[in-house]
Protein backbone atom coordinates (compact mmCIF):
# COMPACT_ATOMS: atom_id res chain seq x y z
CA UNK A 1 0.00 0.00 0.00
CA UNK A 2 2.86 2.32 0.81
CA UNK A 3 4.37 1.81 -2.64
CA UNK A 4 1.15 2.82 -4.36
CA UNK A 5 1.01 6.07 -2.36
CA UNK A 6 4.59 6.86 -3.31
CA UNK A 7 3.77 6.16 -6.94
CA UNK A 8 0.73 8.46 -6.77
CA UNK A 9 2.81 11.22 -5.20
CA UNK A 10 5.49 10.88 -7.91
CA UNK A 11 2.82 10.88 -10.63
CA UNK A 12 1.22 14.05 -9.21
CA UNK A 13 4.60 15.77 -9.00
CA UNK A 14 5.44 14.79 -12.56
CA UNK A 15 2.04 15.95 -13.84
CA UNK A 16 2.42 19.26 -12.01
CA UNK A 17 5.85 19.81 -13.54
CA UNK A 18 4.53 18.99 -16.99
CA UNK A 19 1.62 21.41 -16.65
CA UNK A 20 3.86 24.20 -15.36
CA UNK A 21 6.33 23.67 -18.20
CA UNK A 22 3.54 24.17 -20.74
CA UNK A 23 2.72 27.59 -19.29
CA UNK A 24 6.19 29.00 -19.85
CA UNK A 25 7.47 30.57 -23.01
CA UNK A 26 9.24 28.43 -25.57
CA UNK A 27 12.88 29.48 -25.71
CA UNK A 28 13.94 26.87 -28.25
CA UNK A 29 14.65 27.99 -31.80
CA UNK A 30 13.37 25.53 -34.42
CA UNK A 31 16.07 23.71 -36.35
CA UNK A 32 16.79 24.37 -40.00
CA UNK A 33 15.25 21.02 -40.96
CA UNK A 34 12.01 21.95 -39.16
CA UNK A 35 11.88 25.33 -40.91
CA UNK A 36 12.50 23.62 -44.27
CA UNK A 37 9.69 21.15 -43.58
CA UNK A 38 7.33 24.02 -42.72
CA UNK A 39 8.23 25.78 -45.98
CA UNK A 40 7.46 22.61 -47.94
CA UNK A 41 4.14 22.24 -46.10
CA UNK A 42 3.29 25.84 -46.94
CA UNK A 43 4.03 25.20 -50.63
CA UNK A 44 1.73 22.16 -50.64
CA UNK A 45 -1.11 24.12 -48.97
CA UNK A 46 -1.30 26.77 -51.72
CA UNK A 47 -4.49 26.44 -53.76
CA UNK A 48 -3.09 26.66 -57.29
CA UNK A 49 -5.30 24.06 -58.95
CA UNK A 50 -2.58 21.40 -59.13
CA UNK A 51 -3.25 17.98 -57.63
CA UNK A 52 -1.09 17.21 -54.62
CA UNK A 53 0.88 14.51 -56.46
CA UNK A 54 2.18 17.14 -58.94
CA UNK A 55 3.03 19.97 -56.54
CA UNK A 56 6.60 18.72 -56.05
CA UNK A 57 7.71 20.11 -59.41
CA UNK A 58 9.33 18.62 -62.49
CA UNK A 59 10.42 15.39 -60.77
CA UNK A 60 6.87 14.64 -59.68
CA UNK A 61 5.60 15.27 -63.20
CA UNK A 62 8.19 12.86 -64.66
CA UNK A 63 7.27 10.17 -62.12
CA UNK A 64 3.57 10.68 -62.79
CA UNK A 65 3.91 10.51 -66.58
CA UNK A 66 6.25 7.52 -66.35
CA UNK A 67 3.82 5.63 -64.14
CA UNK A 68 0.94 6.57 -66.42
CA UNK A 69 2.88 5.39 -69.48
CA UNK A 70 3.89 2.09 -67.89
CA UNK A 71 0.27 1.51 -66.87
CA UNK A 72 -0.91 2.10 -70.44
CA UNK A 73 1.75 -0.28 -71.78
CA UNK A 74 0.69 -2.93 -69.25
CA UNK A 75 -2.98 -2.57 -70.14
CA UNK A 76 -2.15 -2.72 -73.86
CA UNK A 77 -0.08 -5.88 -73.44
CA UNK A 78 -2.84 -7.46 -71.36
CA UNK A 79 -5.46 -6.68 -74.01
CA UNK A 80 -3.15 -8.07 -76.71
CA UNK A 81 -2.68 -11.27 -74.70
CA UNK A 82 -6.42 -11.69 -74.16
CA UNK A 83 -7.11 -11.12 -77.85
CA UNK A 84 -4.48 -13.71 -78.82
CA UNK A 85 -5.97 -16.21 -76.39
CA UNK A 86 -9.52 -15.59 -77.62
CA UNK A 87 -8.67 -15.69 -81.33
CA UNK A 88 -6.32 -18.65 -81.07
CA UNK A 89 -6.27 -20.60 -84.32
Automatic annotation (TrEMBL):
<keyword id="KW-0999">Mitochondrion inner membrane</keyword>
<keyword id="KW-0496">Mitochondrion</keyword>
<dbReference type="GO" id="GO:0097250">
    <property type="term" value="P:mitochondrial respirasome assembly"/>
</dbReference>
<protein>
    <submittedName>
        <fullName>Uncharacterized protein</fullName>
    </submittedName>
</protein>
<dbReference type="InterPro" id="IPR036539">
    <property type="entry name" value="Cyt_c_oxidase_su7a_sf"/>
</dbReference>
<feature type="transmembrane region" description="Helical">
    <location>
        <begin position="62"/>
        <end position="83"/>
    </location>
</feature>
<keyword id="KW-0812">Transmembrane</keyword>
<keyword id="KW-0472">Membrane</keyword>
<dbReference type="GO" id="GO:0045277">
    <property type="term" value="C:respiratory chain complex IV"/>
</dbReference>
<dbReference type="InterPro" id="IPR003177">
    <property type="entry name" value="Cytc_oxidase_su7a_met"/>
</dbReference>
<comment type="similarity">
    <text>Belongs to the cytochrome c oxidase VIIa family.</text>
</comment>
<keyword id="KW-1133">Transmembrane helix</keyword>
<dbReference type="GO" id="GO:0005743">
    <property type="term" value="C:mitochondrial inner membrane"/>
</dbReference>
<dbReference type="GO" id="GO:0002082">
    <property type="term" value="P:regulation of oxidative phosphorylation"/>
</dbReference>
<dbReference type="GO" id="GO:0006123">
    <property type="term" value="P:mitochondrial electron transport, cytochrome c to oxygen"/>
</dbReference>
